Write the structure tokens for this entry.
Amino acid sequence: MNRIIDLIEQEQKKDAGDFSVGDSVRVHTRVIEGDKERIQIFQGIVIGRKGRGMNETFTVRRISYGEGVERVFPVNSPRIAKIEVETKGRARRAKLNYLRTRKGKEATAVRE
């Protein structure tokens, strides 16, 4: 059964780009409003990846007007147009939850 699932996932899987936890990314998402479609960009730091295969997701965090905003994206979603890596960050752990408690400039500080 797992072989069948893996075959189906290989057909549907798309190239999401090479990014990891700690990277600063720009996620281009397709937004449909009525009969129009536009691209909206969400820019921030990847604080975690979760799942495997088609179920893989990643969380992006940014500071907007002094408030922390997090958004979870499925890696293989058709709503994601592309993922651009702005800067590579060097993280020594899989989840960067400690960034949630930080304020100001240090909330976006990850080693480069």
